[in-house]
Amino acid sequence: MRVLIRADSSTDIGAGHVSRCGALAEALYARGVRSTLLTRDLPGSVAGATEAMDVISLPATLSDDPLGNVRSAEIARSWLEQDQEPSWLVVDHYDLDAEWERAARGDRTKVLAIDDLADRTHECHLLLDQNLAHDGAARYAPRVPAGCGLLLGPQFALLRPAFAEAHSQAYVRQRVRRVLLFFGGGDAFDVTTRAIEASDLLAPADVLFDVVVGAGNQRARAISEMEIGSRRIRVT
Hints:
Elements: E1 2-6, H1 16-29, E2 35-40, E3 53-58, H2 68-80, E4 87-91, H3 98-104, E5 109-114, E6 126-129, H4 136-140, E7 149-152, H5 161-169, E8 178-182, H6 191-202, E9 208-212, H7 220-225, E10 233-235
Parallel strand pairs: 1-2, 1-4, 2-3, 4-5, 5-6, 6-7, 8-9, 9-10
């Protein structure tokens, strides 16, 4: 089986799409299937070849080209139809919809769309939205083909096994003493700084804050300096 994943990451986009698709690729690899990621070479991208996943790079200027998505669909379709194996196309991208999915899939290809906005149509066999929503099925009903399988809710979250292991060891805390602050790989709107400042003003004096700064965060140095002289903030 061949699996092609279409997702991007950058300073502005963040790392979430590629990260969760990487978790999917690792799960597939454990079952003997190696995936390939089709991704733009954008500033701050976290995409890289791993044991579980190869990478095909697209130009960073793809979205500036009126024919960019057409060309990327042609590349995807060509890759998927290289041999007679059945294949899956995984699409985790807010700028791509049913039109691209139809153009990119091969004749023997099934499509998994990963979404959480429910703001566009999909031409897919499965749709995954791992967020908690009481009306998930109703949101997607007019946006997917009849017979499309819906994987909705946190039970379908694309997380690596380490998270499940940590969850199994977690316990109910009677009092909060430490808080983790993490706002994605890029944090384009610098929510991290605002959260630290708000924590200093509002949180009890004995609560500690572990601040994780993503690899694509352009204010990483300034945020790290906020730790200096503080007994409550630890930046990693």
